[in-house]
Design a protein that fits this description.
Shape: elongated
Radius of gyration: 37 Å
Largest sheet: 5 strands, antiparallel
Helix content: 25-40%
Number of strands: 11
Distance between the termini: 69 Å
Number of domains: 3
């Protein structure tokens, strides 16, 4: 004797066997049709919204309030230990001179150190060992951009033979960054509005805002411009403080409607 399966429909009627399976499928399909129709009538089933994406930029230029200069103390000797000792003594003399000239407001720290053998090429003999070189790079920062010339003159008088770059920066650029970010966001929204208006649409709501994280750019004085001041004991070195440029870029995505 064959087995029998029992099914229960939404109307709580019991049906048996294959006839029950048919009615069950029919009842589920009917229920799904009603559910879809109800969602459509309630507005829960929507078309994909129209979206506009636009970018905006802002640029703010401000006076710098801090100067940063890289100085290098170079020492040479036939023995590595001798070159290291000479450089330590010379570096200490440079730092003492700078502290005396600049006061306690100056920050002096080592930003690089190297010890390497020196060779020179001799015709017919090839590479010839000349000794060792020690290079100690010092970074000097002072919240007075007009003191750039004073830093260079003091360093050269104390024995510094190389000057890297003179960089003018801001001690705290947070307020300017926030201002640039706000202006860039407004510019992006303005562009999105114009684009939507061109096709007879209006901005309905903002979907996303993305900050592109643009770095601050400072105007630097190159080291080759400053080399002449090291070899000259004439008038004090004068360097006009540079400016700092703050940039911001923002991308917005908005939903538009008629």
């Amino acid at each position: 004797m064959g087995s029998m399966r029992i099914f229960r429909t939404d109307s709580n009627q019991l049906v048996e066997g294959r006839q029950g399976s048919f009615f069950l499928v029919l009842a589920l399909a009917f229920a799904g049709l009603i559910s879809t129709q109800c969602l459509a009538e309630s507005g829960e089933v929507r078309e994909k919204p129209a979206v506009v994406q636009a970018s905006g930029q802002a640029r703010i230029v401000a006076d710098s309030d801090r100067v940063q200069i890289d100085l290098t103390v170079v020492s040479q000797a036939m023995e590595a230990s001798e070159a290291v000792a000479m450089n330590a003594q010379a570096s200490e003399a440079v730092q003492a001179k700078l502290r005396k000239s600049l006061g306690n407001g100056a920050t002096i720290q080592s930003s690089g150190y190297s010890l390497s053998p020196d060779y020179s090429y001799v015709q017919g003999k090839g590479q010839q060992f000349k000794g060792y070189s020690v290079r100690n790079r010092l970074r000097v920062s002072l919240e007075d951009p007009t003191a750039a010339g004073l830093i260079i003159d003091s360093a050269s008088q104390a024995g510094v033979t190389e000057i890297g770059q003179v960089q003018f920066t801001l001690a705290d650029d947070r307020a300017l960054r926030e201002r640039a970010l706000a202006e860039a966001t407004k510019a992006a929204l303005g562009r999105a509005t114009v684009m939507a208006s061109a096709v007879d649409l209006k901005v309905y709501r903002v979907l996303s805002i993305q900050d592109e994280q643009s770095p601050a750019v400072s105007f630097r004085q190159k080291s080759d411009v400053l080399r002449s001041s090291l070899a000259s004991e004439a008038a004090p070195t004068e360097i006009v403080p540079g400016l700092v440029e703050i940039r911001a870029e923002v991308t917005v995505e908005v939903e538009v409607r008629p």
